[in-house]
Amino acid sequence: MKNGNEIQITPELVKEHGLTVEEYERIKRAMGREPNYTELGIYSVMWSEHCSYKSSRLHLKKLPTKAPWVIQGPGENAGVIDIGDGQAAIFKMESHNHPSYIEPYQGAATGVGGILRDVFTMGARPVANMNALRFGEPNHPKTRHLVGGVVAGIGGYGNCVGVPTVGGETNFDPSYNGNILVNAMTVGLADAEKIFYCAAAGVGNPVVYVGSKTGRDGIHGATMASAEFTDDSEEKRPTVQVGDPFTEKLLIEACLELMATDAIIAIQDMGAAGLTSSSVEMASKGGVGFELNLDNVPQREANMLPYEMMLSESQERMLMVLKPGREDMAKAIFEKWELDFAVIGHITDTGKLTLKFKGETVGDIPLDSLTDDAPEYDRPWVPTPKREAVSVKAVDDLNKAAMDLIGGPNLCSRRWIWEQYDHMVMGDTIQRPGGDAAVVRVHGTMKGLAISTDVTPRYCFADPVEGGKQAVAETWRNITAVGALPLAITNCLNFGNPERKDIMGQFVGCLEGMGEACRALDYPIVSGNVSLYNETNGKGILPTPAIGGVGVMQDIDRMATIAFEGAGQTVVLIGETKDELGASLYQREIVGEDAGLPPVVDLAVERRNGDFVRALIENGQVTTCHDLSDGGLIAALADMAMAGGVGVDVTVDDTLPLHAHLFSESQARYLVATDADTAEQIRKEAKDAGIPVTVLGETGGDSINVNGGAVKLDLKALKSAHEGWLPNYMANAS
Hints:
By secondary structure, the protein is an alpha+beta fold. Among the domains are: 1-62 and 198-229 and 237-372, Phosphoribosyl-aminoimidazole Synthetase, Chain A, domain 2 (Alpha-Beta Complex); 560-734, PurM-like C-terminal domain (Phosphoribosyl-aminoimidazole Synthetase, Chain A, domain 2).
């Protein structure tokens, strides 16, 4: 085969590339002719859902993305916020769902590698990784295999590259049986005056390829990520990329070394759609054209065709535009780090992506048609029907209910997972996994970055608007609970097939709620990712708009943790508990029902209560704090008692049934523990501020005791069940 463009374009081939008849006609109009095989492949990936956001762009434009501290919002490799003292935090979250289901180790590993590149491309040194994982029900035949592979892949890549994985979340639900979610987040630190962007500039300037060689792995990965699974999805294994974390480490160091000079005009990582997306994005953002000579692309396989080189998603690769005359200096740096370096093209003024191969032009595409003029759909949608409120009954044995929840798959310790991650490398992790938010010291200072990932999909399914609000508010609350000021979020919007009106309605509703919460909490969205078509054989996942939040604390010595610090502390509940058991874990797991309304998120109350709690921590009045979420009061008390190794004796009133006090998932609530005098002071301050506050009891003993023994959980037995579920599950290979 000469260059691959001899392949005839047929309706079947167009369909195989994920393009509709109407989209293909649009391509012909844009080009003024039929595309060749290479050009068809380029349109296929650039117009895929994964790269073009054609079903979501219309709605994403409605989200709040600006604030005085936002340096760069959505549209670049990652978001950038000012954290003071001339420093910036750079962060983003992305999905690697489909690849991780097909090949869990490499799918998860390359997800970590890709998000790391998004961050260091902007000039940041990565300082923390997080993740948000969703698996099917534990008794599904594939779940154990997928959990093991994904966790090993995240740990294997992150540990080798030397960036700590400091936290995350892992949940199980039957809706993910055929389509797991692997969302990876990276946070980096940079000089606020030295941020690097992807817009190419300067006609004639060299376009440079650096990193690993290009192979045939990952071809059509972006297209695969834009289609739902069927029974034959295992056959898509060749579309999963293979990562090398040791090469990524070299690439980080080489890029940061070159960034310390003034040689780089623009830089972009080769992620989804590889050389195609990186060249198209750089040229289109700069309003210029690119001419690439594919003969110069470093290749690790023989006889690669232009189509393969342009669509390969081989890992650990970057594209740069350099100032003229800096090539030799840059080449010396990359060769020192034993990485490939090649000048593969130059900037033109044509506004086109022009591809040369063996002396011939094998591609010539107007760049606008790949980006600004890509399809944008206003998909039909219907609102999610409002549920009726329900009364959730009490079960006979509340002790057993609490033990089953806290020692079951939903609330059990994730220690088995995070102990496989090196969360202490770099030496700046000061709040380890297991708390409300991870905290990483800003190296050489007393400042800390607080990071959290969260979403409650069952709320989003029950009421997308409230669920979207809650997902944002939950990360805001987690960051607040360690004493940091939440500043901005990234997101990973995981949904089913947008061509179904009910699924598109879930998407629109969740974004409405997210936007409302971001505005109310001064918590803008600075980056993100959309992952649609997460379904198998027509069965979609729960709507899962995962949120990654970042905040800053000025003095890490004033950080709060969840652990009771010893006997004799007074435990205080801040916020109001209501009979909100609809869509709760208690209702689903203990009562066996899924009905009713999720808890209401009153954003004014969320802000008021959170600001009050953060001030207590900043003032040094409180060093023990935990927000209430899944599982309600009893789960929060258990977390704090198990973390501190000390029991607690509490009393709740009869304004609500006992099971509602214990398991309600009412929002905007925190537990704090402190000495008796300070607790009384907090009670008075809260009352003056109009904030509901309840002194619940005192720490001590070896059990969690509620209302004089109405519920009594032995701490040792509880911790054994809580710590034991996941390792026992993973060890049971039958």
